[in-house]
Amino acid sequence: AKLYPILLLVPIAILAIRTARYRAAIWCAVATAAAWLAVNLPIAAGYYPGWREFYSFSADRDAEASTFWFIGRYLAKTGIGNGYPPGWSPPGVAVAAVLLLALAGVAAAGLLAPVRPRLAQLAFLAVLAFLLTTKVWSPQYSLWLVPLIALARPRWRITLLWQFSEIVAWVMTLLWLLGFDPNGHGIDYSWLMFALIIRDCFLFVLAGLVIYEMWHPEVDVVRASGLDDPGGGPFDDAPDVWRQWLIERAERRYAAVHAAPDLTVGGHTANGPP
To answer: What is the structure's pLDDT at 178?
Structure first.
């Protein structure tokens, strides 16, 4: 019952803009709200304190060890090899602002791509943007990305390396938690941090490859096989209205500039304003 699927509305909105097929996107948003309300309203009405606890706890809880917020705080305040960093909850406004900036970057990539991206490509980038900016990244959250990367980029080599890094990060997490044992059988957080950074580097590489294939659809396995967007629903084989509008707008501006009358100033002739 996690809220992360709401992030899929971001790529749907981007593709609605590119194809001018807004009705399907609006219906999807309405259905999302209706489904959430149908599940949550009865529980909130009958057990409001318990229902609210998840949201209040999520807002107040400290940053988890697997997030960049925790890593940054550790490097700034504790230092490598200096023990366990104290708990810290980053300001909610800051977390929300960074997330919005990351999603804005996904939207920019989706709107500026020379060819309309596939839904799975944008969905992977949107969910990854959330995970890289959130203050809570539990190990199981990485499972959200598995079906999305399989649809966005069905190539296995880098994906398997990323999955191996997830396994290493999980084992290192358990060893770090074991460090709380009085006998000290665990590891220092700095070792876990290195494993997490390597994991995140693989994810950045995957994101870069997905964006590259958005700009170069000829190397996209799905589109190279002759398909357009088999997971895109109403956006599959849809015209790229947004791209056409950008081209026509650029042509109009170019024509307006070069059709401007010459201006004569001080006996010299110059073209119109640039």
So the answer is: 83
Q: What is the pLDDT of residue 193?
A: 92
Nearest-10 Cα torsion for 6, 12, 13, 18: 170
| Whole-Å CA distances, 241 to 112, 115, 123, 228 | 13, 11, 21, 15
Pull the structure tokens for residue 88.
């810290």
Please identify which residue in the block is written with the tokens 């190539």: 155
- If phi over 0 gives left and psi between -120 and 50 gives alpha, with beta otherwise, what is residue 181? beta
- Count other Cβ atoms within 10 Å, centred on residue 242: 20
CA–CA separation, 12 and 214 (whole Å): 16
CB 19 within 8 A of CB 229: no
Beta bridge partners of 263: 270
Task: State the CB neighbour count (10 A cutoff) for residue 149.
Answer: 25
Q: Is the pLDDT of residue 203 over 50?
A: yes
- Residue 220 CA to residue 162 CA, distance in Å, equals 19
CA distance 48 to 193: 38
Q: Can you give the pLDDT at residue 179? A: 76
Highest mean pLDDT: which of 166-180, 200-214, 220-234, 248-262? Answer: 200-214
72 contacts: CB under 8 Å, gap ≥ 6: none
Tokens for 24? 């399907």
Q: Which two tokens stand for residue 269?
A: 């002739």
**Considering the entire predicted model, what is its pTM?**
0.87
Per DSSP, what are the bridge partners of residue 264? 269
- pLDDT score at 60: 83
Alpha carbons within 13 angstroms on the beta-carbon side of residue 194 total 6
In Å, how far are 63, 142, 164 from 189, measured between CA atoms?
A: 14, 20, 20
User: Cα separation of 88 and 74, whole Å?
Assistant: 10
